[in-house]
Amino acid sequence: MKETLVTISKRTGFAISTVSRVLNGQAEKYRISRKTVELILAEARRCDYTPSLLAKGLRMKRTNTLGLLIPQVSNPYFADIASAIIREARSHGYTVMVVDTMENEENEQEGIRTMLSRRVDGIVAVPCGRTPDHLEKVNRSVPVMLVDRSFERTSLPYVCTDNYRGGVEATRILLQRGHRRIACIQGVPHSMPNRRRVQGYLDALRQAGLQEEAIITGDAFSLENGYRQTKLAVAGPDRPTAIFALSNTILLGAVKAIRESGLRIPEDISVVSFDDNPYLDFLVPAITRIGQPVEEIGKTAVRLLLESIREEVRCRTQLQLPPERIVRDSVANPRTAK
């Protein structure tokens, strides 16, 4: 039999309201005697009573639960973002309900409906849609905080990396070593991080007088995309001397394709990646990359969201945090393609 306030009330002989006040920590407020408190708590421990958090949430108008929408949990970068958010939420006494949208807007909307039915106090989202309309509507009833991705024109708050600056820095690393034919393998074309990284790449080439040399291919933040686009690039008659991979997953696919093609990094082709991860230092050679402040993004997003929940005022903060230039061994001066 499931233990409830009613069953505990029947066994102890105290009113349901008295049992409820004791178990909710309100005994002192209602001047309930110490003896009564001890009897009720002892019975609750004996029968292993677990309160209904949903019922409590309905009474208190809070469930101490956050929703988290992630586009691809299998992607190491998004897994790191999720871990940072969950750790920070837990440190404030919140649990997190995670939904993997699989880069599908319908899955995202279904996930939001599920979260709202569970009465989450707020939602952290890495959005996968093209417009903010749906999330802005949700934000009117439940606070929403965007991370990693944002929209061009929106009132929604967000915390992300300065992706444009990262795109410029990555391209300049290659330009400074003498590369002129640099292939940029992009991810989801319409996503804001991708668009800003590509724009940084293009502007760095333009500033170097090489805008006509731009090579942009690809359509997903995936291993398969990196592998396929690199295979095509290195098989052509005018092989690029360097590749700028716009995510660590794209990078891994590119590395496999380069090795299968009998080429060496960086002797035959240089590589720079966006995103940081410890495993990139264990590849041979270690990969030069643009790191994102994942931990800071997660912590800042949760803190801003919880502040919005507590104060019952919608947050309008929009932050872009600086990326980190991490130079390793995957870039060298270009050689003439054989």
What report would you give on this structure?
Pfam families: Peripla_BP_1 (PF00532). Residues 4-60 form the HTH lacI-type domain. The model has no long low-confidence stretch (mean pLDDT 93). The chain has helices at residues 5-12, 16-23, 34-46, 53-60, 76-91, 105-117, 133-139, 163-176, 192-207, 223-235, 248-260, 294-311; strands at 65-70, 95-100, 122-125, 144-147, 158-161, 182-185, 215-217, 242-245, 270-274, 288-291, 318-321, 324-326. It is of the alpha/beta class and 338 residues long. It is built from twelve helices and twelve strands. It has a six-stranded parallel beta sheet, sandwiched between helices.
Question: Can I get a quick summary?
Answer:
The chain has 12 helices and 12 strands. The chain has helices spanning 5-12, 16-23, 34-46, 53-60, 76-91, 105-117, 133-139, 163-176, 192-207, 223-235, 248-260, 294-311; strands at 65-70, 95-100, 122-125, 144-147, 158-161, 182-185, 215-217, 242-245, 270-274, 288-291, 318-321, 324-326. This is LacI family transcriptional regulator.
Layout of helices and strands:
Layout: H1 5-12, H2 16-23, H3 34-46, H4 53-60, E1 65-70, H5 76-91, E2 95-100, H6 105-117, E3 122-125, H7 133-139, E4 144-147, E5 158-161, H8 163-176, E6 182-185, H9 192-207, E7 215-217, H10 223-235, E8 242-245, H11 248-260, E9 270-274, E10 288-291, H12 294-311, E11 318-321, E12 324-326
Parallel strand pairs: 1-2, 1-3, 3-4, 4-5, 5-11, 6-7, 6-8, 8-9, 9-10
Antiparallel strand pairs: 10-12
Protein name: LacI family transcriptional regulator
Domain HTH lacI-type: 4-60
InterPro entries: HTH_LacI, Lambda_DNA-bd_dom_sf, Peripla_BP/Lac1_sug-bd_dom, Peripla_BP_I
